[in-house]
Amino acid sequence: MSESTRTLSATPEQIESGKTMAIVSYLIFFIPLLMDDMRKNPFVMFHTEQSIVLLLLNIAAGIVGSLTCGIGLVLYIPWIIFLIMGIMNASNGEMKLLPVIGQYGEKFNLVK
Question: Model pTM?
């Protein structure tokens, strides 16, 4: 897969004001989308993109798990790992893509 070519940046003020909401986005992705001030924060929207990709992985794991009599539930292990990585990145003020799946967040085009 090709790496993302977009460059993302957020000011230290945007990062500090958006840390809590970036963490919340991993738990309930649509909350930051409902708040106008957070929709303008590139740090929060970056982590919201990543959380939507995680949600899609979670849905895929559920579908594969139900179709394969539970064997596909192994997909939940990377989901949990990526969830923890995303929350840690948000709490550390970093805008790092999640491994393997993070590049697909750019397709949602939330960061402008």
Answer: 0.89
